Amino acid sequence: MTASSALPYQRLHVELDARRYPIHVGPGLLDDPDMLVPYLAGQQVMIVTSETVAPLYLERLKHALSGDGRDVREIVLPDGEHTKTLASVERIWDALLAAGFNRRCTLVALGGGVIGDMAGFAAACYQRGVAFVQVPTTLLSQVDSSVGGKTGVNHPRGKNMLGAFWQPRAVVIDTRTLTTLPARELSAGLAEVIKYGLIQDVDFIAWLEARMSALRALDADALTDAILRSCAIKAEIVAADETEQGQRALLNLGHTFGHAIESHQGYGNWLHGEAVGAGMLMAAALSQRLGWLEPDEVLRVEALIAHAGLPVTAPASMSGDDFLSIMRLDKKNIDARLRLVLLSRLGDACIHDATPSDMLDALLTDFPRR
Ligand code: NAD
Ligand code: GLY
């Protein structure tokens, strides 16, 4: 991972040998052909976006991508986590086939993590794999989902159960797109930002404690710094463990609990980041029960999550058994063993598969509900 500072924008790289790719971060990049055109495989371009994002940014992106005789089309999908299905991806494939696009086409994902995950999966499968570029427009997608090549869709029985690892050719983050993002979605993105501090960077936790109000007030410098630090941590982890054979699983802190909340509550009722926020606090509370965190450290985690505008309780309608039955389907599990990402201390995480079942049951029963 490398960073540049002499440019009017910031740039990092995900170091994956021949598949190395840049993450460009800066204001107004959506309009800059130099940020986008070099990463196209050929003349055929399909922008995949959503009904909310299209009116805001589609024409500008199209303008930046057009020229030199390129055939730039778009498919606009309905919004929301409940649309992250195989049926939506089929619509992307239908659009590509109807346009007569071949293996030299490029998909450009313009939107949040739902669009990015689906467009990436469509690209991974279309004619056995075509190029794609991520243009993420939510904080969550800018700091997490657009980087690292996890693509896919949900199944009614489990979150992200169908998918592929398929890396983009570039990630182009226009930080100005965050100005139109609803506050609730910004908070959801902050959950993944907090995650990086908790798993890897105790100094970043302190930085976030000091800057949380500025971040929520859309301070451009604070947001850019948070995005860069988050992407740097993610790029380093992905470069070391692309297909999650080991340390990449640490990026799932709070996700096993969080995915259970999302699945149980119905996709979209709790935002992914909200469920991860509550889930990270559950992981911290379990880490305390294991003797790894002090009570005041868990309170510090709780205060940071609350300050980000995220829930610090689980849904009242979810029993401990509800959690367990969904958590047993988690992709990290090996055979029947439940594997959880927990905090060995603040700023350091581990994968743990030996939590005594009575301890986990007690946590799931006692954790506050609302
Ligand atoms: P999302 O894609 O549903 O976007 C949230 C909402 O914001 C949508 O309604 C969207 O249309 C709208 N929106 C997007 N950009 C906007 C903008 N600039 N202004 C106004 N509105 C805008 O949600 P998300 O939080 O971006 O992503 C969540 C998804 O990401 C989940 O499906 C999750 O599983 C996935 N995810 C994937 C990875 C990965 O590594 N692939 C990592 C984390 C999360
Ligand atoms: N969001 C988890 C990962 O990319 O591995």
What this model shows, in words?
This protein is an alpha/beta fold and 370 residues long. It has 2 domains: 10-180, 3-Layer(aba) Sandwich (Rossmann fold); 201-366, Dehydroquinate synthase-like, alpha domain, CATH 1.20.1090.10. It has 13 helices and 12 strands. The chain has helices spanning 33-36, 54-65, 86-98, 113-125, 139-145, 183-200, 202-216, 220-240, 255-265, 272-289, 295-307, 320-327, 357-366, and strands spanning 3-4, 10-14, 21-26, 44-50, 71-77, 106-111, 131-136, 150-155, 158-165, 170-174, 340-345, 348-352. The strands form 3 sheets. An 8-stranded mixed β-sheet has the order 1-2-3-10-7-6-4-5, sandwiched between helices. A two-stranded antiparallel ribbon has the order 8-9. It is globular, with a radius of gyration of 20 Å. The structure holds nicotinamide-adenine-dinucleotide (NAD) and glycine (GLY). Glycine binds next to loops.
